[in-house]
From TrEMBL:
Residues 1-43 are annotated as: Disordered. Residues 332-389 form the PDZ domain. Keywords: Hydrolase, Membrane, Protease, Transmembrane, Transmembrane helix. Belongs to the peptidase S1C family. InterPro entries: PDZ, PDZ_sf, Peptidase_S1_PA, Peptidase_S1C. Pfam families: PDZ_2, Trypsin_2. SMART domains: PDZ. It comes from Paractinoplanes ovalisporus. PROSITE patterns: PDZ (PS50106). PANTHER family: SERINE PROTEASE FAMILY S1C HTRA-RELATED, SERINE PROTEASE HTRA2, MITOCHONDRIAL. SUPFAM superfamilies: PDZ domain-like (SSF50156), Trypsin-like serine proteases (SSF50494). The chain crosses the membrane at residues 83-105. This is Trypsin-like peptidase domain-containing protein.
Amino acid sequence: MTDGWNARSAPYSGGQPPATGHPMPPGSPGAPESPWWSDAMHDPWRDPYAPTAVVVQQPAIASGPQPEVVPNPDAPRRSYTPILLICLITALLAGGLGGTLGYVFAVRGGVATGGGSALGATAEDPPAAANRAPESLAGIAAKVLPSVVTVRVTGAIGSGFVVSDDGYVITNDHVVEGADDTMSVAFSDGSTARAELVGRDPQSDVAVIKVAKSGLTPVAIGNSDAIAVGDPVLAFGSPLALRNTVTYGIVSAVDRTIEAGDAGTTRYYAAIQTDAAVNQGNSGGPLVNAAGEVIGVNSVIRSVGGNETEAGNIGLAFAIPINQARRVAGDIIDHGKARRTVIGAEVVTGGTSTSGARLRSVEPAGPAAAAGMKSGDVVTKIDGHVLEDGTDLIALVRKYDPGATVSVEYRRGTKTQTASVTLVADSN
């Protein structure tokens, strides 16, 4: 069916127009001078009210009898086997190609197998812990953990760290208090070993034990005098009996004077304060700087708990500076007892109305007397560190090695004076 514009017919040779009932195309010989058919007024597509009919074209049938076609029985029959083989091979190839493409798209698209749905992008394989950068927190933890031990003493648990390859371990005095032949340590790899007490110093809260195991890896020792507020630190140990625990924080303060004690023993030291999470069981474990070096021994926490069993971390933990702990431990190993650094004077402790450390008495042949100080003087600074009371003076003096010379500022009456004092070890 056409719209009339593209109609085609055989050329008209003249005479009467064909009696087909169809209009002659314009321009044909004998055609009327009109752009439409001659019977355009009766065109059903023009006149919607004109009668129409659908004519079905029938194939032409020749008249007369048709010859019968008889198949030749001797003609070779066509085989369908090659066609079937081609179809089968094509189907196999198509199936294999489709499966391969589907797997590739599924893997790249993050489609989960096993009936689940994948959420998010496909992640790369995570690197092994051993491949962490040595300077990263994970790298530091991996380096230090083999040297950290859990100390078991008569049902109690504390921590410690190896300082020599032949088995010496530093810990807190209050960790090994009451130790007997059953004391043992556990390492980060799960192995255990028997341990014996070498010596302890209750006033500094430092003790040394020796582990019956060879081939140990000692920690790297840092310089606690080189740290600053804000330095990152890691605390290692077994808080609440959770072995191989590592927590992270910063140095919150330095030279925080601590007076602590129990059972009649008073301990003084100028502590490193940190906000790293430290709880019961961390005692004796190392506080480590960003280089993986030990800069302190975790010892005391401050808590809002009413008693020791209720004490928990509130972001205030204190460590003995490693310079002091190493000196005390060395004295214990070499001499069986620790030396304490003194200034040669007795100070007033407790609540006083005077800011500073008032000297109650001065030893005649002691360092303070040699520097010209007298009873009644009030020490206000030591090496630039402001003193609030006598506890500050005791704790800060013990931070130094015997033989160290420190600058002291003191007040006598209304006058302020300075002196250089060479500290010594006590005679006990």
